[in-house]
Amino acid sequence: MEKKKWDLFALASIPLAMTLGNSMFIPVLPVIEKEIGISAFQSSLIITVYSIIAILLIPIAGYLSDRIGRKKVIIPSLIISAIGGIVSTWAAWRGEDPFMLILVGRFLQGAGAAGAFPVVIPTVGDMFKDEKEMSHSLGIIETSNTFGKVLSPIFGAVLAAWIWYLPFASVPVLSVISLLLILKFVKVPKDNEESKKKSIRDFIDEMKETFHHNGRWLTAVFIIGCLNMFILFSFLFHLSSLLEDDYDITGVVKGVVLAVPLLFLCISSYICGKKIGGKKTVMRSVILISNGGGAAALAFINKDLGLFLMILLLTITSIGIGLSLPCLDTLITAGIAKEERGTITSFYSSMRFLGVAAGPPVTALLLENNFNHIYLIFAALSMIAALLAFWAIKPEKKVEEVLAQS
């Protein structure tokens, strides 16, 4: 692993850049609304357009990465992301009626993101044969992703306080930095020539075979990943609104408060990835316990709870999610043959993106009901994730058989 530390550093820059390039817009949407005269619904499209196109294109990017190679997908994707950032920046800076052109830029940025971060996971899987090294490396990638979430509310608020359209301008800068690092340091294993020679029909038949033998635990991992991200972005959306509406906490201070549970999520992801190794039965137990613990914490949140206790319980939930994600990453990466790894992990990434995209609008609808019910629903979803892990993930029977075959 020491020999590949710079490869890993370069790859870890991608989730950091892509996460910052999207999540930092959430706390600055009200500023954008005022500057270009759009409604709250219109400003939400700045996030939604990015997410929808990414969800649709991630499986295509994963398939292409299996067929033509990981770097051949990542590099043009980062270039597209940078172009999207430039389009949005120019529209915000010089456009008289910039909203539609900003959305065009965000569409391009989402298309680029679809072929960047999701392809990182199978790339790491290709680089390491030892399961302990793979688990540790995926933990670092997940930590980089969550660290981007920690920084994003503060980063976005600071940039927007200086010049309101600077968050848009930061996107091409971040994308180009990642691009240069990938070009300089990343050396992935040689592409599998047999995989390239296979017809699409052969590839589809192999995918059907994979899901026939592993469909239960794969589907469970997909759903748990989606639920984890849905719960995370749902409570962040609600907490963001609560801080502003009930406690009059705004700007950078609000960003710092939002960063607290995310910081603990980041730390727990790193520790889990480093310590869990290749012990798949332990991973199953961690996923089960962490989601069950998160459910218990969420169930205690109610409208009479003070801000400190609420953030404490949300931090416990975040730690659970932080423990769960690296285990999911490793199970799905180590449990699938290299020739299909990009496609299968892309479905997983799409499900996680779906959770991110669905969380805020669903929470906004739920806010019309009683406050207690929202967190009881989140608790129920977290418990469903735990039960899925208990029922469907049987690594001693499923994942290890696939590893032996691959």
Automatic annotation (TrEMBL):
One of its GO terms (molecular function) is transmembrane transporter activity. Its main location: membrane. It is found in: Cell membrane. The chain crosses the membrane at residues 39-61, 73-93, 99-125, 171-188, 217-237, 249-270, 282-301, 307-328, 349-367, 373-393. InterPro entries: MFS, MFS_dom, MFS_Efflux_Transporters, MFS_trans_sf, Sugar_transporter_CS, Tet-R_TetA/multi-R_MdtG-like. One of its GO terms (cellular component) is plasma membrane. Residues 7-397 form the Major facilitator superfamily (MFS) profile domain. It comes from the Bacteria. Keywords: Cell membrane, Membrane, Transmembrane, Transmembrane helix, Transport. It is a multi-pass membrane protein. Gene3D superfamilies: MFS general substrate transporter like domains. Belongs to the major facilitator superfamily. TCR/Tet family. This is MFS transporter.
